[in-house]
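TICKET: design request
STATUS: open
ATTACHED STRUCTURE:
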């Protein structure tokens, strides 16, 4: 049985069945990077791993808006990536009713040496759009991002806010039914952020599903139906939003006092 699959007849937007995933720790290397890679290939050393998700079983219904909480960003991102299908679980199964768009560091995929138009085609293709679909939507994407006059100019040294707006506009143009979002529910200057939230509110009225991971949920101008909290044993719990936030804060206090912050760095 496939560990991740799409089931169009599924009643839920996504279902996790006893899903576990381990990821490599990122610690300061001992010696040169090439030497370390060769030693791993020779079997002389192995990357240390940590449990990102442990025996997770939960269901997300179509149209739900869920806040993903946890003391460590690597765990939250791991859950989003499992939902979106960009990583496979080590055990268990993930069933999805439809493809999900992973809004995780999308702006980093944009190439400075390409034009705005080329970047829209590149990112749109990575997010599942066909060239014909991108062609139909490229002007709307550029217009949303405020880049129509620069459509055929190289992205070059454009500031991060410009790249974020272009990535956000491209992701929204996919017309997906589900979005797995890491911190970037809204981007750019205040006016553009208001535009983002208005568009997301409209999508929610259409039944689009959102999973949003954040360590500052009070800064998100959005209403969530419930929370999924990842505890210090990497287990996932479904809670109301207030309870989930309180558990996250308690876990962060414990993490700061008990753990070396380099032990569990972000996996990116």
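STATUS: resolved
RESOLUTION: sequence designed for all positions
ATTACHED SEQUENCE:
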């Amino acid at each position: 049985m496939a560990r991740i699959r799409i089931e169009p007849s599924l009643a839920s937007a996504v279902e996790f069945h006893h899903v576990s995933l381990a990821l490599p720790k990122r610690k300061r290397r001992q010696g040169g990077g090439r030497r370390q890679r060769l030693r791993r290939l020779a079997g002389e050393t192995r990357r240390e791993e940590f449990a990102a998700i442990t025996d997770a079983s939960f269901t997300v219904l179509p149209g739900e808006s869920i806040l993903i909480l946890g003391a460590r960003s690597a765990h939250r991102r791991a859950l989003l990536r499992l939902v979106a299908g960009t990583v496979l679980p080590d055990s268990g199964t993930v069933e999805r009713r439809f493809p999900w768009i992973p809004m995780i560091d999308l702006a980093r995929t944009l190439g400075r040496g390409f034009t705005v138009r080329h970047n829209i085609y590149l990112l749109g293709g990575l997010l599942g759009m066909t060239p014909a679909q991108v062609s139909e939507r490229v002007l709307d994407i550029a217009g949303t991002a405020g880049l129509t006059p620069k459509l055929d100019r190289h992205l070059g040294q454009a500031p991060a806010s410009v790249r974020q707006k272009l990535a956000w506009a491209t992701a929204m143009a996919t017309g997906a039914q589900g979005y797995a979002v890491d911190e970037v529910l809204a981007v750019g200057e205040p006016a553009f952020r208001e535009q983002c939230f208005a568009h997301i509110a409209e999508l929610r009225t259409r039944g689009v599903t959102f999973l949003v991971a954040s360590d500052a949920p009070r800064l998100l101008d959005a209403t969530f139906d419930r929370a999924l909290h990842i505890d210090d044993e990497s287990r996932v719990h479904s809670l109301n939003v207030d309870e989930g936030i309180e558990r996250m804060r308690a876990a962060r206090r414990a993490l700061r006092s008990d753990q070396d912050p380099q032990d569990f760095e972000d996996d990116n």
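CLOSING REMARK: DSSP finds seven helices and ten strands in the chain. Residues 263-268 have pLDDT under 50 and may be disordered.
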